[in-house]
Each structure stands twice: as structure tokens, then as C-alpha cells.
Amino acid sequence: MKPDISTEVGTIKIERPAMLASGILGISLDVFDRLYKDGAGAVVTKSLSKEPWEGYPNPTVVGVKTGYLNAVGLSNPGAPYFAKMISLNKTVPIIVSLVGSIPEDFVFMIKQFENVKILGYELNLSCPHVEKVGLEVGDDPELVHKIVKSVKSQSQVPVIAKVGLGSSDYLETVRIACESGVDAITAINTVRAMAIDVETTRPILSHKIGGLSGPAIKPIAVRCVYEISSKFDIPIIGCGGVSSWEDATEFIFAGASAVQIGSALVDKWVGVFSEINSGISKYMEKKNFSKIKEMVGIAKKF
Ligand SMILES: Cc1cc2nc3c(=O)[nH]c(=O)nc-3n(C[C@H](O)[C@H](O)[C@H](O)COP(=O)(O)O)c2cc1C
To answer: How confident is the model over 86-101, as pLDDT tens digits?
Structure first.
């Protein structure tokens, strides 16, 4: 029998284990539909704020040797506009990423999606380059507690917290999020980094410091998934440098039930999803795994 590559992240059921990561490929329902048809298990939207955000001036993205550095500044059209844009969604499993600085922001945004078909929310507690939101929220345990509690009390769908490496212990953020009732954790966001142009002597990104993504951060992300999975009983979505079925499988062995893909879409475009699906399926057949669940976290036994 062919192996079953569907997976469950807590109560979130998806047909395939790789999702689109937040912030990659914008916010168009047509594109989400295409990705889903071409093999993505789900898509995560760009992080949305209460009001539209313009983001930073260019340059906002630069390629470095082992990945990308970005400080886009979370530019987005705002949750109310986006909720209207996807209001006709019937088929695509969409996870809505939200960013804000106080619980009331999140409650307001959730109201916008009350009548829209979505799979869940992902709270961005980890953007490394926008002040007063993201990591600055993730680094504040009291605020994480209040935000997760408020969101959970309002949301009809599962809530995921996306964590990253800020200035406090990220495992503490995970602990608070879990205790406050979050349904799953996504780990990790980009890692604070910078690049300087030797000719002009200037930092390349307009925001100077940005977030590193791509293959460079994969071993860090695998380590985080492994640590979270070893310490907490919570479903995990692995993110950071996944570009092949081997990468996805590594995250699953570390403890992830699904993975997200961002930077790899730049090189491989949507083909990356079908490549991962068929690669994992063949591997499972070869190694006699019938379900993804049997593979989750098995590296922890050593
Ligand atoms: C251009 C760009 C924009 C991003 N925007 C967001 C965002 O809006 N919200 C978020 O949670 N993560 C955002 N991310 C982080 C990704 O979702 C992901 O966590 C990170 O890129 C690591 O995955 P990767 O190595 O597969 O790219 C962004 C990443 C990039 C490269």
C-alpha cells in the first residue's frame, strides 16, 4: 500500500506535510490556490496587522552566500482588506498569520475572519526587524500570555504561535504560549543578521539589520524543533531552510509534524512541494513507514 503523507498538527489535518511559510509569495488567493493544487498542504499568509503597513524602503531583500537577508517591514494591506479578499475561499487550507503589539489588535483582526473559511491562525511572535511587534512581543512573557489567552478565547479555529530567536530564552516563550493554551508551535522565524557593502561601506538593507533565511538557518531550526519537542508535549511545525524532501524528513525526525517552506521557492518555485511529497512518499515506502506520525520525533530516542 502507498504510504499516507497526510499529517496532523494537533487538530489541524493537512493532506501533505509541506506548507507555504508566511510572507513568501504575498497574499493573493489565486497564488494560494495554485500552490495548493501543486502540492502544498496549506498556505500561511503574509503577517497581517490591524491597519495597512507600508513596510521599509528598498533594499529590503538581499541574497547572501547561504540564503537571504530580508527586512521588508511586514508590509501588508491590513487584516480587514485581506479578509474581504479571501472571503470567497472554499477550498484552500489557509492559515492566517497575525502580527500586533497588544491583545486588542489580535481580537480586532480575528473578528474580521469570523465568516471566512480558514484553517487556523499563526501568531507572529518572532519577526526580528520590526519594533514593538514580533520578537519584541515574543521576548515579553506577560504579553505573550495575554495575547494567546485573548486570541484563544475568541478564535473558532486552532491557534499556532510562531517563535524565533530573540534576546530572551525562546523556550520560555514556548512554555508561556503552551501554558496559555496555544494549539501548536511554528519554529523558527528568520534569525537577526546583517550584510555590509564594502564598496560603499553602508549596511545593504535600508533597515540595516534584517532576518536570515534559507539553508544557513536549517541546522539552527532543526535544533530548536528538537529542543521544543524534547521539552514540551505540543505539535510543532518546522521552518527554516527546508528545500528538499531530506530537509523536511530531518525536521520530522526532530519532532515536527509538518514543515513550512519560504526561501526555497525563490530557486525551485512551486515544484518544491511536489518534489517533497514524492520524495517523502518514496522514502516511507523504502523504510516501511505507513504514516508521517510514525516518523515524528524518532531522532529523540538516541
Ligand atoms: C521576504 C520574507 C518575508 C517574510 N515575511 C514574514 C512574515 O510576514 N511573517 C512571518 O511570520 N514570517 C515571515 N518571514 C519568515 C518566513 O516565514 C520563514 O520563517 C523564514 O524565511 C525561514 O524559512 P525559510 O528558510 O524556508 O525561508 C519572511 C521571510 C522572508 C524571506
So the answer is: 999 999 999 999 999 9
User: Is residue 113 a contact partner of residue 85, using CB atoms and an 8 Å limit?
Assistant: no
Mean pLDDT in residue range 249-272: 96
Predicted confidence (pLDDT) per residue in 54-70, tens digit: 999 999 999 999 999 99
Q: Listing from the earlier edge strand, what are the strands of the sheet with 191-193? A: 61-64, 67-70, 210-213, 191-193
CA of 282 to the centre of ligand 1 (A): 29
- Beta-strand (E) ranges in the chain? 7-9, 12-14, 18-20, 42-44, 61-64, 67-70, 94-98, 120-124, 159-163, 184-187, 191-193, 210-213, 236-239, 258-261
CA distance 238 to 252: 8
| DSSP assignment letter at 203 | B
Whether 256 and 291 have beta carbons less than 8 Å apart is answered as no
Mean pLDDT value across residues 282-293: 98
Average pLDDT, the chain: 95
CB 221 within 8 A of CB 241: yes
| Bridge partners (DSSP) listed for residue 196 | 203
Pocket test for ligand 1, best of 24, 56, 95, 121 (most atoms within 8 A of CB): 24
Residue 166 Cβ < 6 Å to ligand 1: no
**Domain boundaries, given as residue ranges, for the chain:** 7-51+75-189+215-301
User: For the structural domain made of 7-51+75-189+215-301, what CATH number should be given?
Assistant: 3.20.20.70
The residue-averaged pLDDT of 151-162 equals: 97
Q: Please indicate whether residue 134, judged by its CB atom, sits closer than 6 Å to ligand 1.
A: no
**φ and ψ of 152, to 5 deg:** -65, -35
| Active-site residue flag, 127 | yes
